[in-house]
Design a protein that fits this description.
Helix content is 64%, strand content 0%. The chain is mainly alpha-helical and 192 residues long. The protein has 2 domains: 84 residues, no CATH class; 91 residues, Serine Threonine Protein Phosphatase 5, Tetratricopeptide repeat (Alpha Horseshoe), CATH 1.25.40.10. The radius of gyration is 22 Å and the shape is elongated.
Amino acid sequence: MTVPGTSMMEDARSAAQGRKKTSTIAGKPGNPLSANPAFQQYQSAVQLLQQGKYDKAVAAFEKLPPSAPPEILERSRMYIATCKRQMEQSRLAFQTPEERYDYAISQLNQGYYEEAREQFNGVIGDDPQADYAYYGLAVLDSITGRPQECLDNLARAIELNPKNRLQARSDNDFQSMVDDPRFTELLYPEVP
């Protein structure tokens, strides 16, 4: 359940980035919810999250009693997921661009599109000739409905490695692009 005037994802992003945001669950001062011990536990956990103490925040969120108000329990589940993702990111250390690419693909497959995009761009930043990273971005752009970016990244991947043209012809991840004549022209330039 979302509380009017705020989105849970905005709250999670704000908390994960350490920005203070007044919780809208308790609402106005004097709300009986603010005196609830579960809410006080929840607030402590959010503070830990804002301070970047993700492991302690997870433990605090998990200690909330099942009898806590549903709004608190729902947000707590979201914050736990946010904390776990932040902890995972802080442990990431890639030895090669290929390892980073593999991680980007795993994020793409799990639906973490912005994280995947960030990692693909990181590979390209480390190695501007990484055709496979441009190909990965093209797939991501196709999946997320960004046709022009898909075409641009796929064209760059093909320019760096012409074998990517053959791979793209049979790649089901480009389903959203098959009716675009620019896509067909990119994959079959020899057809008049």
